[in-house]
Design a protein that fits this description.
5-stranded parallel β-sheet; alpha/beta; cytoplasm; 156 residues; EC 2.1.1.177; Ribosomal RNA large subunit methyltransferase H; Alpha/beta knot
């Protein structure tokens, strides 16, 4: 099984790439974590928010594997604890299907793309900088894996 993060936005600050890379590198070979960036629609074109999200959704769809479990990151998604995410990761692994976590752009994800999701997760009830999602999600997935393996990284 593979974990794939498909995220809208390119040219992130170096700290984002370093943070994501650190936790992606720690993931085991049997559960690799990869990132695919898709171009955000320029906000200066005069298009409506809906049109921009639709254009980004088309790019996201093109980046998705043919078969995968789609998990949308959404402010209205399930709010999981670390232990609950670990159980979810365990269930994903048992299912054997690759899992793609989808991160929208500044305006979020189109309703049509959201409708294709198998599930929705929320990282936090706080409003966070968009760039912070990648390293935060990578760390959360690594921590969930460490819980499942009784690795000392996570402490209760």
């Amino acid at each position: 099984m593979k974990l794939l993060i498909v995220a809208v936005g390119t040219r992130m600050p170096a700290w984002v790439e370093a943070g994501f890379g650190e936790f992606a590198r720690r993931m085991p070979r049997e559960l690799p974590l990869q990132l695919v960036e898709v171009k955000a629609e320029p906000r200066t074109t005069g298009k409506t928010v809906e049109a921009m999200m639709a254009a980004e959704a088309t790019r996201i769809e093109a980046a998705l594997p043919a078969r995968c479990r789609r998990v949308i990151l959404d402010e209205h998604g399930a709010d999981l604890t670390t232990m609950a995410l670990a159980r979810r990761l365990e269930a994903w692994q048992a299912g054997g299907e690759d899992v793609t976590l989808i991160v929208g752009g500044p305006d979020g994800l189109s309703p049509a793309l959201k409708a294709t999701a198998h599930e929705r997760l929320r990282l936090s009830s706080l409003t966070l900088p968009h760039a912070l999602v990648r390293p935060l999600l990578a760390e959360a997935l690594y921590r969930a894996w460490s819980v499942l393996k009784n690795h000392p990284y996570h402490r209760e």
